[in-house]
Queue: 2 jobs
Job 1
Amino acid sequence: MEIARDRASLEKALADAQRVAFVPTMGNLHEGHIKLTRIAREHADRVVASIFVNRLQFGPNEDFDRYPRTFEPDRAALAAAGVDVLFAPLEQEMYPTPQVYRVAPPLLAEELEGAFRPGFFAGVCTVVLKLFNLVQPDVAVFGKKDRQQLKIVRGMVQQFNLPIEIVPAETVRAADGLALSSRNGYLSPAERAEAPNLYRILRAIADAILDGRRDYANLEVAGRAELAARGWKVDYVAVRHGLALRIPHPEGFDHPNLLIVLGAATLGTTRLIDNVDVLTEEGKD
Ligand code: PAF
């Protein structure tokens, strides 16, 4: 696996590539990231993964400096997974001057995650656009765990006419249902035992919809209450339409198969997010 630190070495490493698939990450990798690289491999002869902790997507109360930097184990895991090129740019390469131009994402970026993390999606879109310009991939793989990110990046690609296919990847879960996340490492043993309840509660709402419930607001309130009673600080539990994450019709006119249940809540000091398709169709998004 080649390691590229700047545009010139990245271009050299990809000079003879026919088709490039790209997996952007902030490092601190787990099996979910490795699955993204395996999916990438199915789409191209050359797989590039990036590791770059993007300060633009951290809010003032989110500690950019304390985000785990685990370069050596990350490098080894990507090499073992057969990644061809690791793009690990230095801060000066990505932001040689203060980044005063930003992508302005749509209103959706102010809802759900965006309501609790102002500026987050502008930061994500800006760095993803820059990474896309540097890597020039044909395909990029994004995990469905960060569902809103996937939607917003896909919209950006469409509206800016970027010639990149965005491929969604199913969330990888532990045996007890907990979605794999770099943040799981912060959980105490007791919190780790509690954590799968986020998925269980979202899944129960999805199952209730499949069983015919259409009173989404009540289901959301009940989900939030159950999490709160278990000691979580809940940001949101929301039933949304899968296409653009809009609020579904209150009288249940949307087909249940198109709905998604999303949640974000904090256990101790660790904020977890998850989502489930009311009806899972692998690969669809
Ligand atoms: O999902 C992430 O890890 C980040 O938001 C991304 C896409 C690498 C941009 O920094």
Note: The chain is about 35% helix and 20% strand.
Job 2
Amino acid sequence: MANRRNFLKTTALASAAFALQAFKGKAETEDPAEPNKINKPIVLSTWNFGMQANVAAWEVLKNNGKALDAVEAGVKIPEADPKERSVGYGGRPDRDGRVTLDACIMDENANIGSVACLEFIKHPISVARAVMEKTPHVMLVGDGALQFAVSQGFVKENLLVEDSEREWKEWLKTSDYKPIANIENHDTIGMIALDANGDLSGACTTSGMAFKMHGRLGDSPIIGAGLYVDNEIGAATATGHGEEVIRITGCHLVVELMRQGKSPQKACEEAVMRIVNLTQKRNKNLKDIQVGFIALNKKGEYGSYCIQGGFNYAVHDATGNRLIDASCFLK
Ligand code: ASP
């Protein structure tokens, strides 16, 4: 986690505020010599931990497996890692010392499942998938989500690791809630994949903002905000301040922009600009906010954009696995 973010780029903020930076596309993957070529399979995921997650997803994709299985397998890697302090086991608690997890999943047939404010279960993404596959509902929260998970055989365990508990106790001394952009107190793994069959799926999972109010949900368990998949068009997922992503129904917006013909890169840029402009209108300080989107279309083209520098994402296709620094609005 230590190297994941190198936040607080306060310099240049003043001069850069609300001036749209010229973007140089770096991830347009279409080969002009073969315009109809589809780059598949391919998987994208947020942050450094996406590298390892992609490896697990690729194991499924390279064997002609389904994107749905790939994204679940992929995000389970950081969920299970106690050193990843913003996802699953090891995630930082809320202000009451409770580790509450949010996750959602969406497949190529617009099947959706989500859990929010789920405690004591290491793999919320798999509970979200069970909600999708085994209930008539699409979202379960809190005690109801836990009750359902246990009924499905998920094991209850303590998710609060020593380091998170120590940090929380330290935080209690001031109880000052400041989810500072690019300080290491929140992150999400969002993963989107296109499989060999040409189908798209996505998954998103997080412990949300550290020391949040108990019961607070961000964008990550909300289909349309933290994740959206349309198998005719493309898929998108988000990380950063969930309140801002929800405000614009971020990932649905990114997919709709791709439907209008925008590249994944341009769609992410336009969604970020909505947040930038709303922040200005609402007289809030943009330097306090980070949001990053990643997007993938049916051709296997991808892109990403964020507000502040420091956000990166991992891409795995037949040419290998690599980490890419997202282009950003504030330099
Ligand atoms: N989007 C997550 C939330 O608001 C946190 C993050 O991705 O940094 O809960």
Note: The chain is about 30% helix and 25% strand.
